[in-house]
Amino acid sequence: MASLINCPHCGVRPKEEFSIRGSASVVRPAQTAPDEDWNRYVFVRDNERGRIQEYWHHSAGCRRWLVVDRSNVTHEVFSVTDAEVKAKEAAR
């Protein structure tokens, strides 16, 4: 059975239309942060198991950036949010 992603703009689409682009939970350091913080931000990632949030690009559809909340163990998708909406919510 193919995995399906419910794009907020295009509706339910096969996962093959999307590209995973990395964790959506990594916080960018301040410009004045020490080099060690920048090194960790750029090169070091935790390989968490379970429910995670990732940036996905709908490359074969609306071409929007999305934040997908899913389990990397079961591949169950819990929610899909437009990344712009998510960023505006975080800025509040």
From TrEMBL:
InterPro entries: SoxD, SoxD_sf. Signal peptide: none annotated. GO terms for molecular function: sarcosine oxidase activity. It comes from the Bacteria. One of its GO terms (biological process) is tetrahydrofolate metabolic process. Gene3D superfamilies: Folate-binding superfamily (3.30.2270.10). Coiled coil: none annotated. This is Sarcosine oxidase protein, delta subunit. It comes from Rhizobium freirei PRF 81. The lineage of its organism: Bacteria, Pseudomonadati, Pseudomonadota, Alphaproteobacteria, Hyphomicrobiales.
